[in-house]
Fold:
Amino acid sequence: MHAGLRRWVVVAAASVAAFATVVSTATADQYFHTSHAALTPIGSAPLRSGFVNDIHTQGATIAAQERYQLNGAMPNTTYDVALHVSFVDPTCTVTGILPTTTFTTNASGNGEAGFTFYQAGPWPPPTPPTVVTIYIRWVVSSGGVPQYQTDCIAVALDL
Structure:
């Protein structure tokens, strides 16, 4: 192999190895992957579609990011989002309620919002981490009245 070509191959291989090392440090959570949970109407609340995305990261600053979206809901309406959390019951009997954000739909009943949970504990977590499963139902309310909700979702948290 020509010396110039050999040098190029060595530099390219070293670059790929360095890139792979950097990419491997920015990984998704190893115990809970992104959840896409459909929102369904409670009672006669209008809704074409809606969802909650729950994205857990493996980062020093952000623990999780959530995205909420309604399409064809009640127009020009302010909604509050809350997590109804159960620490032991996979049917989501509520142990606690954690409000996250408020948003308002437009004239077509479309709206979206997000919420970020910041890393609270020391980073990086111990190896191996303690993994705890909790159960969450996301509830979207207007004027204190629940309008939309997800199914009960098992969420693994690595502490």
